[in-house]
Specification:
This protein is an all-alpha fold and about 90 residues long. It has 2 domains: about 55 residues; about 30 residues. It is about 80% helix and about 0% strand.
């Protein structure tokens, strides 16, 4: 056996135990990470709610809509101006 301690069965058992322990550690780590994530999300949500209550800041959806509208309006204006510069008359649209 060349200096190995224990026979085949003992080694197999040792590996099995080690695997179990690693698995357990991994599971615990994952659980702790999930808890931290949930806590972080709760805190973010609380902060957003406070901002909304105080009147500054809008909900994410509202902010997104506003940005989209703004972009659309700008594009329309640019298009109108480019048409106006080309034709020399303003077209409605």
């Amino acid at each position: 056996k060349g200096g190995r301690e224990g026979g085949k069965k003992e080694r197999k058992e040792g590996r099995k135990e080690g695997r179990k322990k690693r698995k357990k550690r991994k599971r615990r780590r994952r659980k702790r990470k999930d808890e931290e994530k949930i806590e972080g999300r709760k805190e973010e949500k609380k902060e957003k709610e406070e901002e909304l209550e105080q009147g500054r800041g809008k909900g994410g959806e509202e902010r997104r809509k506003e940005g989209r509208k703004e972009g659309r309006n700008l594009r329309k204006k640019e298009l109108c101006w480019s048409i106006f510069e080309q034709t020399g008359e303003e077209e409605n649209g």
